[in-house]
Design goal:
- It contains five helices and four strands.
- A hairpin with a 5-residue loop joins strand 3 and strand 4.
- Helices cover 37% and strands 18% of the residues.
- It has helices at 19-29, 49-57, 64-67, 81-91, 111-119, and strands at 33-37, 43-48, 95-99, 105-110.
- A two-stranded antiparallel sheet has the order 1-2.
- It has one domain (3-119): CBS-domain.
- The chain is of the alpha+beta class.
- It binds S-adenosylmethionine.
- S-adenosylmethionine binds at residues 33, 46, 48, 50-51, 69, 72-73, 92-96.
Length: 120
């Protein structure tokens, strides 16, 4: 099995989106991980519900670019799911944006998607 067969649609945000707006997007779409993309759709970061909670806890209600993680761990569409699982385990994260060779976001693979494979 490869990543593209289990990945889901990613909801992305822009670096200038406000932290408050991201909180709304997370609740409205029932998601935890939002890849951050530039105007060309290329990955520049990731922001999660954890980052939003931290921003609120620190009273730092600015923009996504102030609270996102810039060094993103990614997966490729044809990468084996075992490899994606190992990356998540190694870095203590629960989702990887799936990108093409030009770093354009194709989707998201989450630990939830991978556990569904085991449950089948
Ligand atoms: N264990 C929790 C989890 O799985 O989400 C939280 C720990 S994790 C270290 C929290 C941080 O990881 C957040 O600051 C988030 O931006 C970052 N993060 C999440 N997914 C990431 C990814 N694919 N690449 C890089 N950082 C990521």
């Amino acid at each position: 099995k490869v990543v593209k067969s289990v990945m889901t649609r990613a909801i992305t945000v822009k670096p200038d989106t406000s932290v408050e707006e991201v909180a709304k997007i997370i609740i409205q779409n029932n998601v935890n991980h939002l890849p951050v993309v530039d105007d060309e759709g290329r990955l520049v970061g990731i922001v999660t519900s954890w980052d939003i909670a931290k921003a609120v806890a620190m009273g730092k209600m600015g923009k996504v670019k102030d609270v996102m993680t810039r060094k993103v761990i990614t997966a490729l569409p044809d990468e084996p799911v075992e490899s994606a699982a190992r990356k998540m385990e190694k870095h203590n994260i629960s989702a990887l944006p799936v990108v093409d060779a030009k770093m354009r976001v194709l989707g998201l693979v989450t630990s939830e998607d991978l556990s569904k494979l085991l449950a089948r």
